Amino acid sequence: MFIKNYQPIPIENTKFVELVCSNCNNRTQHRIHEAYYGPQIGLIFLKKPLLSLKKYYLICPVCRNATKEISKEQVKANKI
Ligand SMILES: [Zn+2]
Fold it and tell me: Each residue of 14-56: pLDDT tens digit?
C-alpha cells in the first residue's frame, strides 16, 4: 500500500458529450472521467486507487481541461 496522486481516468462504457471547451474553445467530444481527491490509498500497478473520494468531470480531449463537473447520477445517465 502507498499513497500517490492519481490522474483522472476515463470511465468505460460512457457516451461522449459534445461541449465547447472553456479553455481552448474547441467544440469537442468530451469524455466522462473519474477524478480522485483527498487521501488516496492504492497499489502501484493499479490505475485507480482502492480508496478515495471521487468527483466526475467532462474532460476536453484536446487540452485535458475539466470543462464541467457532473454528478454521479449524470454519469449513470450517460452509461451505454
Ligand atoms: Zn480544451
Answer: 999 999 999 999 999 999 999 998 888 888 788 888 889 999 9
Give distance in angstroms: CA of 1 to centre of ligand 1: 34
pTM of the full predicted structure?
Answer: 0.84
Residue 36 pairs with which residues in a beta bridge?
54
Nearest alpha carbon to residue 77 among 15, 33, 18: 15
DSSP the chain: -B--PPPPEEPTTB--EEEE-TTT--EEEEEEEEEEEEEEEB-TT-SS-SEEEEEEEEE-TTT--EEEEE-HHHHHHTB-
- For residue 68, the cross-strand partners are 58
Ligand 1 center–CA 62 separation, angstroms = 5
